[in-house]
Amino acid sequence: MKSESVPPGPSVLLALQRATHITLQLLAAELAELELTASEINALANLADDRGRTVSELGAAIGTRPTTLTSVLDRLERRGHITRGAVPGDRRAVLVGLTPSGRAAAAVIRRTLADLEQRALSDLPPEAVSGFHTVLDSLTEGER
């Protein structure tokens, strides 16, 4: 993106960063009983559909490298929330899945996320939400 195409005014990225921190604080407060870190919450939220993912797929969904994700998965596995197993036909890949306690935690996380999103976006017109998604897509495309 060329600097001349950036509109004057407050930084979109700084506003996004501030919103992210506030969102993480709200989630931490509302999910305190789960005793999970923000990264663990993110991983479980992305596994909530109970469709196993390889470490690489999960890392891409979360926006982190598989090597960074390993310590998060180690903690979730020690707590009994996930399992890691082999991928048929690919000896190098590791498949991550939820255990019953992981499913329960993921369900609580997804409900909390949906409630928070509903509270935050309910007064916005659909085109504003769509525009926000367009901005987020543009930012994440820059990573690829």
From TrEMBL:
Protein known as: MarR family winged helix-turn-helix transcriptional regulator
Sequence ranges assigned to domain HTH marR-type in this UniProt record: 9-141
UniProt KW Transcription regulation keyword: yes
Superkingdom, taxonomy of origin: Bacteria
Keywords recorded for this protein, A-Z: DNA-binding, Transcription, Transcription regulation
